[in-house]
Amino acid sequence: MQEFKTYHPIVNFFYFACVTAITCFYMHPVFTLTSLVCGIAYAVMTGKAASARLAFLVILPIIPVSAVLNSLFNHGGMTILGYFSDGNPLTAESIVYGAASGAMIAAVISFFLSYSKIITSDKFIYIFGKAIPSLSLIFSMVINLIPRLAKKAKEISDGQRGLAPNKKSTLFSKLKTSFRVMSILVTWSLEDAVDTADSMKSRGYGLSKRSAYSNFVFDKRDATVTAAMAFLLLYTLIGICSKGIDYVYFPSFKINGATPYAVSVFISYFLLCATPIIIESCEAIRWKFLRQKI
Amino acid sequence: MKKYLSAAIIFVIAAVIASAWFVSRPSTVPSETNEIPSTSDVSIDNTTSAEEKPDVKGDTDKQANSREEAVTEPSVPQTEQKPKEITESANTDENTADTHKCTLSVRCDTAVANISRLTPEKAEIIPKDGVIYSKREVTFNVGESVFNVLLREMKLNRIHFEFENTPIYKSAYVEGIANLYEFDCGELSGWVYRVNGSFPNYGCSKYAVNDGDVIEWIYTCDLGNDVGGRNVYTEE
Lengths: 294, 236
Description:
The structure holds two protein chains of two kinds. By secondary structure, chain A is mainly α. In chain A, 72% of the residues lie in helices and 4% in strands. In chain A, strand 3 and strand 4 form a beta hairpin. The two termini of chain A are 21 Å apart. In chain B, the strands form two sheets. Chain B has a four-stranded mixed beta sheet. Chain B has a three-stranded antiparallel beta sheet with strand order 3-4-5, with helices on one face. Chain B contains six helices and seven strands.
């Protein structure tokens, strides 16, 4: 179920750029809900159980937390539900807005869960290596930093445990060991950074005349998907800019009625968000047919 | 040498935390007698400064001048009332308000006049005649401030009302009434209050209401200039 990953990096990046940008900058509740559903569905598809656990234990609870926090600090809105002890009102609009912004954050985080699975650092460097060589290298290293450090820390602590297997573990000794692991980790990461820099320099990374080998070919399949996504994006953007769909959170919550045009814009945004899911499903169905033929 | 490293790191972290704690702790020097030194200090300071120089807002090099002006030049037809310290035990219970009466009104005529500067969704909700709370007599308790009166009346009439409370200065700032907020009608707009025809130069939570006071809450789009007030920028 990694069909979308085999597409050209530009297609992958175009998809994530579109959906995260629209999710961040356009807080229409229908759009936010679409992004959230598609983002979590695709994150679970790419990341399996680990992503599902993260999505339901960490990402989705952001929504109620944000609703509560926003209603504590934001008191605008026409619908007064009650009063806080200090005298400020609790309004329905502030709760709705808090939930919507929480859903927006949750959607963006879930998009980035699948982003890290789909756009690996080699793809990122392929896209941006020519335009911004050093920045793209740094960015791909930063993205990779935490998982790498965690892996290395486990390695080091296993090694430390292997050195003194029968040691009594008091609180102080545990503390001492973890500080030693920390110290080794810091030393290693500094050395590794120097190594990486030297290595990239000696390979001639970032020199203008040097070419880099890559196995990515922009074929017909990529062109079709890019064209489809571009069309959907354009249709959605026209819908947003022409105010065919519109929303207001304060002072009273309002969205445009479900006119046929508005519904068509929602559908086009849903198709845009669900592009990789559709691709994966098509591929799964085709695979089933092929197996039936055998 | 290396085995002391962890101890050294612990020591450094502890030192940083301790120093941060010491820095962030409020100073305890003048607090021998007072329980809440900072609060009472500030409030006393506020009151005295307002009594001495009710006209000074800003320009520190003009302080002496403007104080003399206030004494020698009674061209301003407003009667300055000195702020009274609001007693802590002011009874703000809604049910026991007794015979003390004052008049309260809330209006937003300037916002209606400048309706083109409001966003469409705000322009929709403001009352077209500018009256959010029509002029009427309300009861209050001894020691209540203008703010207390407004808060209670807005609550009783279920009119939307948002304020910012800063307990350490015992000050409240009215941000919006009936969803008409500060800065909604241009960057110089907001809520001001007028008592008996004059604009007091201190916060509404400092002004103790007297019997028969006429309190008006007015929306301004130009720092008070459009409603007959004056401010530090126009007063020369």
